[in-house]
């Protein structure tokens, strides 16, 4: 049998970003590079440098946490498709006769698939990932979480590429997850967010999980609950607003619901009647970033007026050009 040759790296022009976003929103990218290897990432950086676009590079995974502009993006969009997933080691732990699995996944590997794959095989720790519609890279960058669990709790280390093309890594095995743990992780926060323009992309992540006979059942329970409480069939980017931090603070969804906004619409954008922290695209009409941004601002204003709380987005609003207001 003839070995398959990996697709050759190329840069495309004018690709509609609506097809790369779970919102289904976005005009054309000036350039798009689909990167399947670390070498591809470096080639994309070289291209951006030659074209004078090194300040106009944006990296996506599955586009599940972004809102692109209706005009598109006047720069280079890099789609991370590093979708490998390799078992590194299995070792016995010192207690409870458990085994520990170390597994390394590329930044473009589907986080949902990783959670399902591990839980089905009886490994616990990433059951919450089942149903999260993003990639490993996005989950690490945002410290994605659900059902009271966060990515950093099982993250051993991560490789990343700097904006200069240098490959580096961070080890998190010594630091604990959380605001006071020293690892740089907190609610929807990671040390990678603090790198700013020095970071190009997360490249891979190594997770450490433990054997757990009930993992498959827990993942299934989370999936059922997600289907009952979240508008999974609608075009959305997941939860739009971060939950306010503080003891006794209501969730963002509860605050939006309390302001009477469930089902409220601005043009083609609506607050989901099922879960108020999901802003969704209506089935009819051309989906519009302008409408979605207007709805985001109206929700902020109504919650501020009703509850005195300033909501902030966990959604990344991407401007057409660097320097424009991205929200």
From TrEMBL:
**InterPro entries in UniProt:** FAD-bd_PCMH (IPR016166), FAD-bd_PCMH-like_sf (IPR036318), FAD-bd_PCMH_sub1 (IPR016167), FAD-bd_PCMH_sub2 (IPR016169), MurB (IPR003170), MurB_C (IPR011601), MurB_C_sf (IPR036635), Oxid_FAD_bind_N (IPR006094)
Q: Which UniProt keywords apply?
A: Cell cycle, Cell division, Cell shape, Cell wall biogenesis/degradation, Cytoplasm, FAD, Flavoprotein, NADP, Oxidoreductase, Peptidoglycan synthesis
Cofactor(s) for this protein?
FAD
Pfam families xref list: FAD_binding_4, MurB_C
Please tell me whether the keyword Cell wall biogenesis/degradation is annotated for this protein: yes
One MF term in the entry's GO annotations: FAD binding
What are its E.C. numbers? 1.3.1.98
Coiled-coil spans are: none
- Pathway annotation: Cell wall biogenesis; peptidoglycan biosynthesis
What the entry lists under Gene3D superfamilies is as follows: 3.30.465.10, UDP-N-acetylenolpyruvoylglucosamine reductase, C-terminal domain, Uridine Diphospho-n-acetylenolpyruvylglucosamine Reductase, domain 2
What is the protein's known function? Cell wall formation.
In its UniProt entry, what is this protein called?
Answer: UDP-N-acetylmuramate dehydrogenase
């Amino acid at each position: 049998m003839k070995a398959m040759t990996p697709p050759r790296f190329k840069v495309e022009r004018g690709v509609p970003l609506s097809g790369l976003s779970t919102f289904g929103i976005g005009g054309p990218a000036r350039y798009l590079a689909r990167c399947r290897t670390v070498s591809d990432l470096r080639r994309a950086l070289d291209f951006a440098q030659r074209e004078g676009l090194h300040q106009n590079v944006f990296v996506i995974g599955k586009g599940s946490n972004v809102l692109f502009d209706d005009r598109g993006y006047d720069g280079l969009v890099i789609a991370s498709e590093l979708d490998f997933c390799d078992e590194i080691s299995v070792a016995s732990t010192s207690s409870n006769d458990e085994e520990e699995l170390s597994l390394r996944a590329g930044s473009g590997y589907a986080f949902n698939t990783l959670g399902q794959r591990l839980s089905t095989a009886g490994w616990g720790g990433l059951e919450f990932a089942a149903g999260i519609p993003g990639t490993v890279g996005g989950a690490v960058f945002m410290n994605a979480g659900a059902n009271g669990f966060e990515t950093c709790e099982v993250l051993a280390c991560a490789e990343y590429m700097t904006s200069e093309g240098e490959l580096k890594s961070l080890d998190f095995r010594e630091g604990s997850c959380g605001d006071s743990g020293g690892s740089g992780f907190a609610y929807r926060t990671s040390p990678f967010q603090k790198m700013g323009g020095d970071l190009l992309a997360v490249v891979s992540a190594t997770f450490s999980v433990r054997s757990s006979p009930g993992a498959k059942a827990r993942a299934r329970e989370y999936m059922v609950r997600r289907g009952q409480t979240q508008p999974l069939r609608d075009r959305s980017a997941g939860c739009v607003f971060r939950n306010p931090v503080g003891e006794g603070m209501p969730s963002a969804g509860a605050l939006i619901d309390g302001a009477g906004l469930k089902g409220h619409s601005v043009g083609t954008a609506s607050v989901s009647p099922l879960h108020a922290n999901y802003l969704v695209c209506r089935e009819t009409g051309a989906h519009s970033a302008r409408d979605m941004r207007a709805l985001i601002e109206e929700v902020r204003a109504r919650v501020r007026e009703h509850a005195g709380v300033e909501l902030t987005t966990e959604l990344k609003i991407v401007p057409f050009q660097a320097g424009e207001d991205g929200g």
